[in-house]
Backbone:
């Protein structure tokens, strides 16, 4: 199961890279949703249930946000974020596996809150925070995910590149006021 989980996390991380490098928020959300589902499977295989449930909640949240964004109902993102953060906290407490369970809870809560903003830099920054805390989580769970941790290190770099790329594009358009909404 450990070997299968490592293959799955590699595929999940590939999807994550594609999401971070996307320029449209709807593409970012769709790819992140698929990445989260495979990431949850990876954690279930490692018996890291707190991490797995958090990613299931995030996948559902991203699906809701994707459709809200696609059909111009983005103003409801904050409500979906609040409900999802509540679910993350509840599921982490229910699937408590020691203090390590706090890491995916904080990681996903931060990511969920950041993803309700229209500014793609804030969304990508939330994903970066999630990657950093996931890296630590993968190293402290009993069935460590060393391949996953190494790939999370790569994803941290990719996230930073994606943030810088978006900042450069934002600077080029000089439309700071629109980006902050």
Residues:
């Amino acid at each position: 199961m450990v070997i299968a989980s490592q293959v799955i996390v590699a595929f999940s991380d590939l999807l994550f890279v594609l999401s971070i490098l996307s320029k449209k928020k709807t593409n970012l959300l769709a790819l992140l949703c698929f990445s989260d589902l495979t990431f949850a499977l990876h954690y279930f295989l490692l018996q890291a249930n707190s991490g797995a449930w958090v990613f299931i909640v995030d996948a559902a949240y991203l699906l809701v946000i994707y459709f809200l964004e696609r059909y111009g109902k983005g103003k409801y993102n904050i409500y979906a974020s609040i409900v999802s953060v509540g679910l993350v906290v509840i599921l982490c407490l229910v699937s408590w596996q020691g203090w390590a369970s706090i890491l995916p809870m904080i990681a996903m809560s931060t990511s969920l809150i950041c993803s309700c903003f229209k500014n793609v830099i804030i969304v990508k920054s939330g994903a970066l925070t999630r990657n950093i805390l996931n890296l630590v989580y993968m190293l402290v769970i009993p069935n460590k995910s060393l391949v996953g941790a190494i790939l999370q290190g790569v994803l941290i770099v990719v996230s930073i590149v994606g943030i810088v790329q978006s900042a450069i594009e934002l600077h080029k358009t000089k439309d700071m006021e629109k980006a902050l909404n």
User: Anything to note?
Assistant: The CA atoms of residues 4 and 98 lie 25 Å apart. The mean pLDDT is 86. The two ends are 44 Å apart (CA to CA). The chain has eight helices and no strands.
